[in-house]
Amino acid sequence: MKSERSPAPAVARVGIRNNLKQFGLLVAVNGLVGALVGQERTLVPLFGERIFGLSSAAAAVAFVASFGVAKAAANLAAGALADRVGRRRVLILGWVFGLPVPIGLMVAPNWQWVIALNVLLGINQGLTWSMTVIMKIDLAGPARRGLALGINEFAGYVAVAASAMGSGLLAEHFGLRPEPLLLGVAIACMGLAATVFLIEDTAPHARLDPDETPSLSVGAVVRLGSYADRTLAAAGRTGLINNANDAYVWALLPVLLLSEGLRAADIGLIAGVYPAVWGVAQLGTGALSDRFGRRGPAAIGMVVQATALLWLLLGNGVAPRVAAAAVLGLGTALTYPALLAAVADTAKGASRASAVGVYRAWRDLGYVAGALFSGVTASAFGLRGALVCIAAVTAASGWDAWRHLRPGNAQVVA
Q1: For tag attachment on the chain, is the N or C end more exposed, with fewer CB atoms within 10 Å?
Q2: Who wins on pLDDT, 396 or 143?
C-alpha cells in the first residue's frame, strides 16, 4: 500500500520554525494523548481498592501488565505501519481504539473488564504517542531532535499530570464514576477530531533526511534494537527499567498512600506532580541532551529516580511525598528524551521510524516487567519492601546506561 498523501506544504522543509503550525498542532494532540491515560493514574487503582475490593497486589497490577503488553505491541507495529500507510492514518487509528476506554470504565462490572479496557488503552497510547514522536522527528530534522522530543514529552506528561490531578478532584467531589470519566470521553473526541481535520502527514519531511538510506527489514531493526547494536539495546533496557518503576508508582503507590489514610485528592496531587515535573523539565532536558550528549542525562536520570523512590518510602504525609514525586519527575525527565534522541540519532533515515517503534516496544514492556516484579515482591515483602527492590534495580540501570550508551550523538546504523 502506498503512503497516504494527505495535504502537505508545496515545498517540505525540515526545522521546527519552518513547520511551526503543524508542530504546534502535534504538541496539542500529544497533550490529549497524555490526558487520556492521566485519568487512569488516579482512578483505576482506586477502582480496584474501593469498587472491586481487590486484596491481592498481583491482581491489582494486572491492569498495568495488560496495558504494557498492548502498548509494546502497538509501538512495534506503529513504525512499520507509518512507513506503509502514512503517519496520519496510524494516528487516527490510535484514537479509534482510545474512544471506548472511558465509556467502558463508566459501566465496567468487574476487574476483568477493566483489564480488557486497558488493552485498548495500551493500543491507543502505542499508536498515538509513537506517531507524535515520529512526526516531530520528521519535522524537526537532525539538529533539534532532543528539543523536539522534549517538547513532545512535555506536552504529553504535563497533560497526564493535569488529568490525574483533575480526576482526583472530580472523584473527591462526585465519586469515582461516572462523572470523572466524562472528561475522558471529551478528550478522546477532541483528539480524534483534531487529527482528522487538522493534522497533515509528515512523510514528505522524512524523505528530506540527509541520512536517508534504504529501509532495513523489520526483523533486522528488531535484532539491532534488541541486542546487536550496543546503543539501541542499552536504550531499550534503560527504558524498560524506567517504565518498570513507573508501573509501581502507577499501580501500587496509590494503594500504599490510601492505606496510610491519604484522601483521593491528596493521592491525585502526588500522582499528578510526578508527571507534571517530568513534562515541564523535558523542555530543558531534551535540549540539554542536544548539547552534551545522550549518555549522561540518561544515566544520571536513573540514579535520581532511584533516590526519589526511596524518598517516597521514607516520607511521611503529603508534603514530603509531593517533594519526592517532583524529584522522581526530574529524574525521568533527564532520562526520557535522551533515550529517544539516542535512538533517533543511531538509526539512520528510512529505518528510524521502525527503530523508534522497537525501542518504545522494549520500553513499554517495562510496564509488564514492573507489574510482575512489583506484584511478586509486594506479595513477598509488602508494598514498602517492593518499593525498595524497584529502587535498587533502577539505580543499577543507571550504571548500565552509563557503561553501554554510546557517547555523543553519532549515527551508525545504516
Answers
A1: N
A2: 396
With 0-12 CB in 10 A as exposed, 13-18 as middle and 19+ as buried, what is 61?
A: buried
Q: What are the sequence ranges of the domains in the chain?
A: 17-404
Can you tell me the distance from the alpha carbon of 289 to that of 295, in angstroms, rounded to the nearest whole number? 8
Q: Regarding the domain delimited by 17-404, which CATH topology (the fold level of the hierarchy) does it fall under?
A: Growth Hormone; Chain: A; (1.20.1250)
**CA 405/CA 379 separation, integer angstroms:** 34
As a residue count, the chain comes to 414
Report the chain's C-alpha Rg in angstroms. Answer: 20
> What is the model's pLDDT at position 212?
53
Q: Nearest-CA neighbor of 330 among 377, 372, 260, 279?
A: 279
Q: Rounded mean pLDDT of 256-266?
A: 83
Hey, what amino acid is at 319? Answer: A
Q: What average pLDDT does this structure show over 295-302?
A: 94
Cβ neighbours of residue 161 under 8 Å, at least 6 residues apart?
38, 272, 273, 274, 275, 276, 278, 279
pLDDT in tens, 56-107: 666 667 788 888 889 889 988 887 788 778 889 999 999 999 999 999 999 9
With 0.70 as the threshold, say if the pTM is over it.
yes
> b/e string for 85-119 if b means 16 or more Cβ within 10 A?
bbbbbbbbbbbebbbebbbbbeebeebeebbebbb
